Amino acid sequence: AKRVGILTAGGDCPGLNATIRGVAKALYQKMPDVEIVGVVDGFKGLIKGEYHEMKQSDFSGILTRGGTILGTARTPYKNMKIVENDVDKVAEMKGNYKKMKLDCLFVLGGNGTHKTANLLSEEGLNIIGLPKTIDNDIWGTDVTFGFHTAVGIGTEVVDRIHTTASSHKRVMVIEIMGNKAGWLTLYTGVAGGADVILIPEIPYDIKKVVKAIERRAASGRGFSIVVVAEGAFDAEEAKMKKKERAEKRAAEGITTATARIVRQIEESSGSETRMVVPGHFIRGGEPSAYDRVLASQFGVYGAELFSRGIFGVTVAQQNNEIVHNRLSDVAGKTKFVPVNDQMIFTARSLGISFGD
Ligand code: F6P
């Protein structure tokens, strides 16, 4: 019988369980005697050799469940950076893959995970990736599972903030997750009818942000909704290295981009301003119908790749087709929002300001 492992690594997101289920159900359909092993807590479990023998029933009732039944961890990362060429860890993972007698390992994760997946693939292991992340920043796929659920939750946050903003005539600054890429903030901002969207791909000028807020006030709408990606920065900060930027902010007594923007708006406009940080709220809970469908398609396609003996790849969606890319093409890249993206054009055409 064939024996496959599944692991989930990096930050969790809705749709991981639906994907695991998709892989498992499709495998059992194709090869009823397949043995499935669940690696505990991502690569951490692979390094330590911690795993569970899974039963078919373990994959029932998990389609709607948030998070991951297998557990996850950021290992082998430090401060979001992979410990590159960490020979020991890679050797340990390889050793445990062999000990577990796996014919293939399915790896569900984001950019960091794909880097590690590629390292393992280069070591000769049979790896199939599945692209998860609320950030939607994996190269080579139009969409990742988890993203649209997160857009939905972010939008609910913005909707609720809208009514209180309007009652109090305040500027509400809402921070949306996304340290590198602004996809989630962009889509949430458009869906929630934000007035200003600030993302890392478009460094902002606080004067322009304030102008947009003042323009609204002048037109009689006394409140504004600003959605900010965690990783946003202004044109001055754009010239700095990440570390330098962090040091400068610390000296200003401010740790996050959002807190800085709130202060800048208050100082420049005098508007009463409040900050909202939904944080991991956006990542929790059950996947949307869209993500359940996408996760199922991805999982089933992954099982198909296994049965055809195609490894060293990761599943993707391009122009509504489910396809696969080579791990070596995906590893180490980030899919940023192009400044001429159609959705940026849409937002601008709706009168939304990017503060540029
Ligand atoms: O990659 C997903 C993500 O939620 C990012 O949007 C965010 O910057 C980061 O993870 C938060 O990481 P953690 O869950 O480790 O705090």
TrEMBL record:
Occurrences of domain Phosphofructokinase (ranges): 3-304
Primary subcellular site in the record, as a coarse category: cytoplasm
One annotated Gene Ontology cellular component of this protein: 6-phosphofructokinase complex
Co-factor(s): Mg(2+)
GO biological process: canonical glycolysis; fructose 1,6-bisphosphate metabolic process; fructose 6-phosphate metabolic process
Binding partners and assembly: Homodimer or homotetramer.
Protein name in the entry: ATP-dependent 6-phosphofructokinase
Species of the source: Anaerotruncus massiliensis
